[in-house]
Amino acid sequence: MHKLKILTIIGARPQIIKAAAISRSIKNKFADKINEVIIHTNQHYDDNMSQVFFDELEIPNPNYHLNVGSGTHGKQTASMIEGIEEILLKEKPKCVIVYGDTNSTLAGAIAASKVHIPIIHIEAGLRSFNKSMPEEINRIMCDHVSTLLFSPTKTGYNNLLKEGFPENNIPPYSIDNPRIFHCGDVMYDNSLFFSTLSEKKTTFLKDNNLENSDFILATIHRNNNTDEPLRLNKLFNAMNTIATENKIKIIIPLHPRTSKLLAQNLFPELYSKIKTSEYIKIIAPVSFLEMIELEKNATLIMTDSGGVQKEAFFFHKPCIILRTETEWSELVACGSAILADADENKIVEAFNHFSQKNKLDFPDLFGDGKAAEFICEQIIENIK
Length: 384
Ligand code: UD1
Ligand code: UDP
Prior knowledge:
Layout: E1 4-10, H1 13-29, E2 34-40, H2 51-57, E3 64-65, H3 73-91, E4 95-99, H4 103-114, E5 119-122, H5 134-143, E6 148-151, H6 154-162, E7 179-182, H7 186-201, H8 204-207, E8 215-219, H9 223-227, H10 229-246, E9 249-253, H11 256-265, H12 268-276, E10 280-283, H13 288-297, E11 300-303, H14 306-314, E12 319-321, H15 329-333, E13 337-339, H16 344-355, H17 371-382
Parallel strand pairs: 1-2, 1-4, 2-3, 4-5, 5-6, 6-7, 8-9, 8-11, 9-10, 11-12, 12-13
The protein binds uridine-diphosphate-N-acetylglucosamine and uridine-5'-diphosphate.
């Protein structure tokens, strides 16, 4: 039987992890129907931001590396578009899969739409309604040139309807007759699948004397938090206050973007406090299985990451979101997450609120753990 050739574009850490769900589904259920070719733009390239996930999550090695690396938005995106276009013309896939909202997503969407290859957007429809975020621009532009749009949440699906996407339209689907789906979250699939593996394979807590102790897990990498010194100082001040007053450890696997700016953007006195703190532990980015171990055992999670705030929910942990708004508004609506911005008072108040250990509600919002399977079935049915 003739296999459908799909081309997957990944580049940043969360996309590599998301792609694991689709690759696993292809391997387990659709190997006779789908042939997946993978391009890695290398937007992320440090071993602990990229290779570790291929080793650990059994994602097939990319067929192509673009070695684009870091740069300004224009330079980085342009270089990706050039590389992707060349491969699309050579490989002639039936469709292109892009994930989320990074510059690699946008580059894939621009390159594929211009050479008339249908785009499958996984994690479509999410909106922060804040166009100063590069991600908001990337996701809106990508959605509007896509053919099959898979939204992980009902809110995302409704956002697409509000932007004029049709509902219940009939095939054949195309860039001019796109089809939108509400299908659950491939990251929920992954969290369920890798949770057991994490328990078997990781010893991070044991190795770091964290077993049976309370700790907070925190991550910070959003550009407005890292690049605006005032915000970064407020965030670390709040964490220092919570850690010292409550004698609780805060484990921070720090994104390289933030690591590089810490000394430059924190006031010297705070920087020195953080570096010598008995409670605040800044560590290098960890693997996904280690991250799951940390998330499952943390008392509370503080983050500005899209992925990590959802994983807090998946593992039934309260979450303080270090942003003014979130694309995952359901988390806030059901009370398990609080938007605290980079506001010291709000962050401390949110911590105190969750410390009272009121029972939190974690309804089923992200599907049944089979979103990847559904997506593959729809691709096979609708892309000819
Ligand atoms: C990107 C995405 C963001 C996503 C995040 C996931 C865009 C516009 N942003 O942000 O949506 O949440 O990835 O982590 O695409 N760096 C390294 N080593 C690496 C990668 C990056 O040192 O392997 C440093 C470089 O100094 C680089 C900086 O991090 O300039 C930012 O990297 P970049 O990929 O441009 O953006 P992220 O902040 O990672
Ligand atoms: N993650 C990881 N190791 C870390 C930090 C994050 O494996 O040290 C995982 C995390 O579990 C989630 C994804 O990376 O699945 C989120 O990526 P990130 O926060 O970089 O980006 P975002 O989701 O905000 O786009």
